[in-house]
Design a protein that fits this description.
about 270 residues; mainly alpha; Leucine-rich Repeat Variant; protein phosphatase regulator activity
Length: about 270
């Protein structure tokens, strides 16, 4: 019964955490018995079971409970098979979604060598716009996961494609993650490539795309600022924040001079 398998999968993470805490007593129980179940349920015929398996997988990765060898030899191959060009549509959409979510939890080497080539292929998927939309919505997270070199070499060309996609929802998703993509690139790429691309989104024929672009305008401009002088930085959750200066931290009250300094530094940036 699918409901039994779903309930079982929901119990896998707490059992795995228990086993990790009792590792001296159960050194290989998770890898021998539970990990094969997680991998098998990623391809279950029932979508609720697959969803439970995907959620369990993310929890296990978040708690660093899956060995690197199992990630590379068991988990990634399954996701690559499910996201292949000839894969079932429903399986492909689920696979690209889980690939994007787990990218931030894996090592840069694993993402770049095993998942990035497939992600680039999926960005150009001409069959399913849902696949391209998931790629566009998570583009900033993938850039952050692989770093500047791989972003500029492999991902920026794909980002250009998505920003000119015929489906306006794709272009809107690109506008919303523009700051995260820009933050991963060099100042020269921001100036010479991303700035003209952003102007095209602000001038888009669809008002929803234009609105999303204007909402991202301030954050995009902030990526041109020098973090050491402007105090701007990107948090782990991808949001823009301002790091208070030493003077602000040491002061017990808000002095007018502090506000003037912040305004002038922002103007210079």
């Amino acid at each position: 019964e699918p409901t039994v398998r779903t309930e079982l999968m929901e119990q896998i993470p707490p059992i795995a955490i228990f086993l990790q805490e009792s590792r001296p007593k159960f050194p290989t129980a998770f890898f021998e018995y539970l990990m094969p179940i997680v991998v098998r349920y990623l391809t279950d015929v029932n979508n609720q079971v697959r969803k439970a398996g995907q959620e369990a997988l993310l929890i296990l990765l978040e708690h660093d409970l899956i060995a690197q060898s199992d990630i590379e030899n068991k988990v990634c191959p399954i996701l690559l098979d499910l996201s292949a060009p000839d894969s079932d549509d429903e399986y492909k959409v689920e696979a690209v979604n889980i690939i994007c979510k787990m990218a931030s939890m894996l090592s840069r080497t694993t993402v770049e060598h095993m998942l990035l080539p497939r992600f680039c292929e999926l960005c150009s998927d001409g069959k399913l716009f849902q696949v391209r939309k998931i790629c566009a919505a998570n583009f900033g997270d993938i850039c952050n996961a692989v770093g500047q070199e791989a972003t500029e070499r492999l991902l920026i060309p794909k980002f250009f494609e998505l920003c000119s996609d015929s489906v306006w929802g794709m272009r809107k998703a690109c506008a919303e993650c523009f700051m995260a993509v820009s933050y991963t690139t060099s100042p020269e790429v921001r100036r010479s490539k991303l700035s003209p691309l952003f102007i095209s989104l602000i001038s888009d024929t669809c008002r929803w795309v234009r609105q999303a672009a204007f909402q991202s305008l301030g954050p995009f401009i902030s990526t041109f600022a020098n973090p050491s002088s402007a105090g701007l930085y990107i948090r782990e959750d991808g949001t823009l924040s301002i790091r208070p200066s030493t003077q602000d931290v040491n002061s017990n009250s808000c002095q007018p001079s502090n506000n003037i300094t912040l305004m002038s530094s922002s103007t210079n940036a």
